[in-house]
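[Q] Does anyone have a clean structure-token version of this?
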Amino acid sequence: MKNSPLVKLLTWLLQWKQLQVAGLVVLIGVSAVGVIYAAHLTRAQYSKLQDLEKEQDLLDSDYERLLLEQGAWAGYARVDEVSRNKLGMKAPSATDLVLVGRASGPNARQLERVKR
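[A] Here you go.
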């Protein structure tokens, strides 16, 4: 049985050099799978990044549009028009103006002049 082909094959496979070669083949295979997996993860993350950048661009354009709309609604002319037409407001006449201030201090003389 020592001379059977199976025994010769196992004896040859279990030699140190053949074990080293087999180990290197396994390590190369594992390394190749790792490179493939890393490339896959990179592509997936890059795709996610592109989706997020597209969403950011859409949000930026919405924000700019809302800023323009806010500027249009908050403009002085618009506020004046709404206050006059819809709320019935008007500028007070000079006789309806009342100045409120402190009665003492440096502005007291100015307050007295306005009262007269």
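[Q] Thanks! Anything notable?
[A] Residues 81 and 87 are 9 Å apart (CA to CA).
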